[in-house]
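pls design
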């Protein structure tokens, strides 16, 4: 796949939402064609689409699908049904901030246009959704341009989970930083953690980087400390699903461990995310809801059990990295530095 053929995770296919099924990558490229909001919500819940920005876009598109097919003879009926749909979409996955943010952005169309009739509201909602998608891609490119400045010449970059084009509208956040850095310095190379149990790093990040011609090596999650001790890692860049007002960051389970190891070995640890990932209503990471997923994702592999049948498993999908372990937060408006509380407030005002 050339740079021009970078695989967008979600796009309009006429009046349907096309979603690249990330569960079957890298061995198969399969697209789900969703014609109802229920189908989009199902794709979010079962991880056919994942990554906080991409999930936010999917939620927004689900609302547009629902609005266009809603049976409502008057605006009051439309608004009542649309509010109910917003609630349903918003709860598809709990941890990422972008989903709730996107739902609010789309719902605000109804609030801001009290005199619009139903056809006008449907058109305005679709327009807002298209803006959310376009703005996400532009934000990711800006994140890449800002972030490349923190990648040293010839750097060996470690990334965790998948924060690439597949996790966003396109281009990527953490992978966007890597793409921009590699374009400026082709000697950059990447270590991608496998990211158990769903293997987003091994399956998706490695897939994206390899297809873009960026040197990437997959490593087991538990080899990070050893590589850092050997001096094989120069900088860490990861994505985020929700960032609290003080900079505490939720990302895929295992990120906290990587951050602690990076601090121990004096390696810069950066988070790359658009401002839509920031939740200024949460003072710190203690209030971030952590999704608990099906234990079978841990106890089974390709449907086959790998643990004793009578042994339970825990499967939290995310953990929270305290802000003290984070060197900087790379956003579309620049790199936020400590103290993060002040930097976050300023960034959200821009």
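designed seq:
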């Amino acid at each position: 796949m050339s740079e021009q053929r970078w695989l967008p995770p979600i796009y309009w296919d006429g009046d349907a939402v096309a979603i690249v099924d990330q569960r079957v990558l890298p061995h198969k490229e399969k697209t789900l064609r969703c014609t109802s909001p229920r189908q989009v919500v199902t794709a979010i819940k079962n991880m056919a689409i994942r990554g906080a920005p991409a999930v936010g876009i999917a939620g927004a598109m689900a609302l547009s699908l629902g609005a266009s097919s809603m049976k409502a003879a008057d605006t009051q009926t439309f608004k009542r049904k649309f509010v109910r749909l917003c609630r349903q979409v918003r709860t598809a996955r709990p941890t990422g901030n972008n989903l709730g943010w996107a739902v609010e952005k789309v719902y605000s169309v109804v609030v801001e246009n009290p005199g619009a009739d139903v056809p006008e509201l449907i058109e305005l909602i679709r327009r807002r959704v298209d803006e959310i998608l376009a703005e996400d891609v532009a934000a990711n490119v800006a994140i890449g341009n800002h972030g490349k400045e923190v990648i040293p010449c010839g750097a060996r970059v470690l990334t965790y989970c998948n924060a690439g084009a597949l996790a966003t509208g396109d281009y990527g956040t953490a992978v966007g930083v890597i793409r921009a850095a590699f374009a400026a310095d082709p000697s950059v190379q990447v270590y991608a953690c496998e990211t158990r149990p769903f293997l987003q790093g091994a399956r998706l990040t490695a897939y994206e980087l390899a297809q873009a011609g960026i040197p990437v090596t997959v490593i087991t999650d538990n080899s990070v400390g050893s590589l850092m001790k050997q001096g094989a890692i120069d900088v860490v860049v990861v994505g985020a699903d929700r960032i609290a007002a003080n900079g505490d960051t939720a990302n895929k389970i295992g990120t906290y461990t990587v951050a602690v190891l990076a601090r121990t070995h004096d390696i810069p640890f950066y988070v790359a995310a658009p401002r839509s990932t920031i939740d200024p209503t949460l003072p710190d990471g203690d209030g971030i809801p952590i999704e608990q997923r099906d234990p079978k994702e841990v106890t089974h592999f390709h449907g086959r059990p790998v643990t004793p049948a009578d042994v339970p498993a825990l499967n939290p999908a995310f953990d929270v990295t305290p802000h003290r372990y984070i060197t900087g937060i790379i956003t579309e408006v620049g790199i936020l530095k400590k103290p993060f509380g002040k930097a976050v407030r300023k960034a959200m005002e821009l």
